[in-house]
Design brief:
alpha/beta; Aldehyde Dehydrogenase, Chain A, domain 2; 16 helices
């Protein structure tokens, strides 16, 4: 039976929610060791939301100790692969069963439309846990070639305790990208979600425990980065940090790893992704891809197509089509409105940062075509409308800085070589795209773009079979796909000599 989702229905779901804000450590909820809490302000209306445990180094110590004890005991690591698979598949089904609750928790925290939280974030979170659960009994060891009197077994073994630090823009999805392969590989995890988006992470951990994950295998510690993320990255008994977030913080994480036990690090960092449109492209398809690629999730997407590099001869036509798509298809509304396509920005501080970057761009000479201004202020929430700037050059701040808001910078070009130079002239290398009907050019250009993912005549299409991550200062290491398992494992050689 298909449910008829209405604003009133979601208000009823919201009124019935019990918000759990304590840490989840060793299979149980725990208050912070200091007893301190902090209040999460709701982005959709600026009202006080959940109270969360304000974690500190002592809480990280407790979570790491629980994770280490679980790993060393082998309670998960040594479990029969088919049984581990069954547990993870049950976990995925529990996520689906509690989808409406999880969607509301996500929307309360981050301000995205609740229907997007339900149909995209919850779905992809469950799919991610299922994908890696199904891989557990398909991870093979190897026999290396040797002489006749020896046998060399090459085993793929888990690293131990993984520290996962995840961002606020797609909390459930990126949690699944880390937790799925790390736990499937046999590790224990301490998850530190962004302080802005902890509610769904806490609930995911409880559902994992309900599905059969042993106590200590998945622990969640909430709190601020300096007070919890930093101690986790510096911890001497953590074997790896998997981090998604800003390039600035990623650099700190690398330093903490070096200062402590030379733990491994995997980083998925910022982006300023180019979308290049040639004059022979299908401009209707390009306009839709640009608008959705830049403005979806209110622009709070690391690989958002925030740099439109467009052939000068079609720039005016394409911008008009982008505006038409934005106004007709991408509805900015209250997140509980089922018709909303985009919602609020994450918090007031971030909204003010986005607005200040817009103002700085205009002072540099960028010309606003439409949007990019605060709206729905009467709600008390933090909303900025999708907007486009033209008369841009690639050295302007709006074209170089990751704004993490619904702002598109349009940069014209005349020749292919110029377009490629502009596209690659960035410290980032997360994603990019090219739109053209010339397939020789499409493949030539896509090979030359310095980015971890490049799309041809589309944008933001993917599945769990494809790895995701960046080049340059967009980080290293890959989420998704079978390759994600490798970063949570190491290879161990066992050599046996005969005779």
């Amino acid at each position: 039976m298909t449910r008829d989702y209405t604003r009133d229905y979601w208000e009823t779901v919201l009124s019935g929610l019990e918000l759990e804000g304590r840490h989840f450590i060793d299979g149980a909820y725990r208050a912070s060791s200091s007893g301190e809490t902090f209040t999460r302000i709701r982005p959709m209306d600026g009202k006080p939301g959940a109270q969360l445990a304000r974690g500190n180094a002592a809480d990280i110590d407790a979570a790491v100790a629980a994770a280490r004890a679980a790993f060393e005991s082998g309670v998960w690591r040594k479990k029969e692969p088919l049984e581990k698979k069954r547990i993870m598949l049950k976990w995925a089904e529990l996520i689906r069963t509690h989808g409406e609750e999880l969607a509301m928790l996500e929307t309360l925290d981050v301000g995205k439309p609740v229907m997007a939280s339900l149909t995209v974030d919850v779905r992809l979170c469950a799919d991610g846990i299922q994908f890696y659960g199904e891989m557990i009994d398909k991870i093979y060891d190897e026999i290396a070639p040797t002489g006749p009197n020896a046998r060399a077994l090459v085993r793929k073994v888990p690293l131990g305790v993984i520290g996962a630090i995840t961002p606020w823009n797609y909390p459930m999805i990126i949690d699944a990208w880390k937790l799925g392969p790390a736990i499937a590989a046999g590790n224990s995890v301490v998850l530190k979600p962004a302080e802005q988006s902890s509610l769904s992470a806490i609930r995911l951990a409880e559902l994992g425990f309900e599905a059969g994950l042993p106590a200590g295998v998945l622990n969640v510690v909430t709190g601020y980065g300096e007070e919890t993320g930093k101690p986790l990255a510096l911890h001497m008994d953590v074997d790896m940090i998997a981090f998604t977030g800003s390039t600035e913080v990623g650099k700190l994480i690398m330093g903490y790893a070096a200062q402590s036990n030379v733990k491994r690090v995997a980083l998925e960092l910022g982006g300023k992704s180019p979308l290049v449109v040639f004059e022979d492209a299908d401009l209707d398809a390009a306009a839709s891809a640009v608008a959705w690629g830049c403005f979806y999730n209110s622009g709070e997407t690391c690989h958002a197509s925030t740099r439109l590099i467009v052939q000068r001869s079609v720039q005016e036509t394409l911008i008009a089509k982008i505006e038409a798509v934005t106004r007709s298809d991408i509805a900015l509304k209250h997140p509980l409105d089922p018709a909303a396509q985009i919602g609020a920005l994450i918090e007031e501080e971030h909204m003010n940062k986005v607005l200040s970057m817009i103002a700085a761009g205009e002072k540099e000479g960028a010309r606003r075509v439409f949007g990019a201004e605060r709206v729905l202020s009467e709600t008390g929430g933090y909303y900025v409308s999708p907007g486009v700037f033209v008369d841009m050059t690639n050295d302007m701040s709006l074209a170089r800085q990751e704004i993490f808001g619904p702002v598109l910078a349009a940069i014209p070009f005349d020749a292919e070589e110029e377009a490629l130079r502009i596209a690659n002239d960035t410290i980032y290398g997360l994603a990019g795209a090219v739109f053209t009907r010339d397939m020789d050019r499409a493949h030539r250009f896509s090979e030359a773009l310095h980015a971890g993912t490049v799309w041809i005549n589309t944008y933001d299409m993917s599945n769990f079979a494809t790895p995701f991550g960046g080049f340059k200062q967009s980080g290293f290491g890959r989420d998704r796909s079978v390759h994600a398992i490798d970063k949570y494992c190491d290879y161990k050689t066992i050599w046996q000599q005969f005779g």
